[in-house]
Design brief:
single chain; 427 residues; alpha+beta; Alpha-D-Glucose-1,6-Bisphosphate, Chain A, domain 4; six-stranded antiparallel β-sheet; 11 helices
């Protein structure tokens, strides 16, 4: 006997509707199914594990801490660490004033305020009225409630833990002295280790400076992904269609091209990395208007890049009277404007040498962009040097983004921290 499920069952109808939506999306954007589980594996294996031990050494990962007994055999555990060039007596006051309508979370305030965890910017000085914290107190996080304090070792450990909805959790901070060197001055530093355990699969809500650095690292990752996608993966997968010297990169994503589906599924993550990098650039602005404008131009570039990929791809070379090609050329021109804009604004984030390098990159983008437009004239006929000239343009842009990201990461790593003369939290 064959068993059948009645089509009017609600969950069956939802599945059928989802399948129709996905099928319509694939037809509209001219893509097929993604590589099986590729995106899930990409996140679950390298990226999630990377975030789960950001900045932590082997000693940090194996160290026994005050709150470890709160959750036995956790399903999820993360240990995050950062080295600060200051002693415990300078860092501890900032920890005990954590919380909503207190000192804040010393993270990305715009994000915390967006989700309601804060109602004001984090404090930039020590607040005497919040320096008394004891076991049993509650650190408020947002309007809904707070995190109970379950253990305190002054100048060494702060443990927040609790239970609710059938699960237990713990979030703890530890200060551990280490020998370090900051800005050429040898001193005794402290590693601030934040460890979280939970028996459910969830990510830590706040990772502070680590989130900012991870966002900046996305600048390097996005550039690598772009170059590897167009000239390594596509070339190896479709060698008969790919051409380094005579073929435009846009032709790899043209409607009907054998490489389109592959590159759409690679370039969607690329654009997400661009947006993440823009957020990191914005968080690194520290009052610099030019850096904030560079982040805005990066977002605009990501939006136009995504639209061009999904909504305005070109047709295959030789297609007669193609309206898609006209829209694609317009989108590419707008995208080029935003590329020049974020390089121009980003040039003022650093000193003279970086500024000169940025202006050289702009000149390269403009000159080779114009050359590409000239060499594309004979299309749909042969274009022997078109692909090479366009790759000079693209590689110069991707190299600048990587250098910009590394320079901002270096600035974050060399933050002077807290000292006796300045009690501000290193932002």
């Amino acid at each position: 006997m064959e068993a059948r499920i009645a089509p009017e069952v609600p969950w069956v109808l939802r599945i059928q509707r989802a399948r129709r939506v996905l099928s319509t999306w694939r037809r509209h954007f001219h893509v097929r199914r993604p590589p099986p589980l590729a995106l899930a594996v990409l996140y679950w294996v390298p990226i999630r594990r990377w975030f789960g031990c950001w900045g932590a050494t082997a000693a940090d990962l194996t160290r026994t801490t005050a709150g470890d007994a709160a959750v036995v055999n956790p399903t999820y555990s993360a240990t995050l660490a950062i080295t600060i060039g200051a002693g415990p007596e300078h860092i501890w006051p900032w920890l005990v004033q954590l919380g909503y309508q207190r000192g804040g979370l010393y993270s990305d305030d715009w994000l915390n305020r967006l989700f309601g965890y804060l109602d004001r910017p984090s404090a930039e000085s020590i607040l005497p009225q919040f320096q008394q914290l004891a076991v049993g107190d509650e650190i408020p996080i947002g309007r809904a409630g707070g995190f109970p304090v379950t253990a305190i070792e002054p100048y060494r450990a702060l443990v927040l833990s609790g239970t609710g909805d059938g699960f237990a959790w713990v979030w703890q901070f530890g200060l551990h002295p280490v020998a370090c060197c900051m800005k050429r001055h040898s001193m005794l530093g402290v590693t601030d280790v934040s460890r979280a355990h939970a028996p459910t699969i969830s990510e830590p809500g706040w990772i502070g400076a680590k989130w900012r650095r991870a966002s900046l690292a996305c600048g390097v990752l996005s550039s690598l992904l772009y170059v590897i996608s167009i000239d390594v993966i596509a070339a190896l997968r479709y060698p008969d269609y790919h051409g380094y010297t005579s073929q435009m990169v846009s032709e790899l994503m043209a409607v009907g091209a054998p490489t389109r589906t592959l590159l759409v599924w690679l370039f969607v993550p690329y654009n997400l990395l661009v947006f993440a990098f823009a957020a990191g650039v914005s968080a690194s602005a520290e009052g610099k208007r030019a850096t904030r404008l560079a982040a805005t131009a990066l977002v605009a570039y990501g939006v136009v890049s995504t639209a061009g990929l999904l909504l305005t791809p070109m047709d295959l070379r030789g297609t007669v009277d193609s309206s898609r090609d006209t829209l694609h050329i317009a989108a590419t021109f707008v995208m080029s404007i935003f590329i020049v804009a974020f390089i121009a604004f980003g040039a003022f984030a650093h000193g003279t040498r970086f500024r000169l390098y940025s202006f050289w990159t702009i000149a390269t983008v403009v000159v080779f962009g114009a050359l590409v437009g000239y060499l594309a004239g004979p299309m749909p006929g042969p274009t022997p040097w078109l692909g090479l000239m366009e790759r000079v343009n693209i590689y110069a842009t991707m190299l600048w983004i990587s250098v910009f990201a590394v320079s901002l990461l270096r600035d974050a790593a060399l933050s002077p921290g807290i000292n006796d003369e300045d009690s501000r939290w290193p932002r």
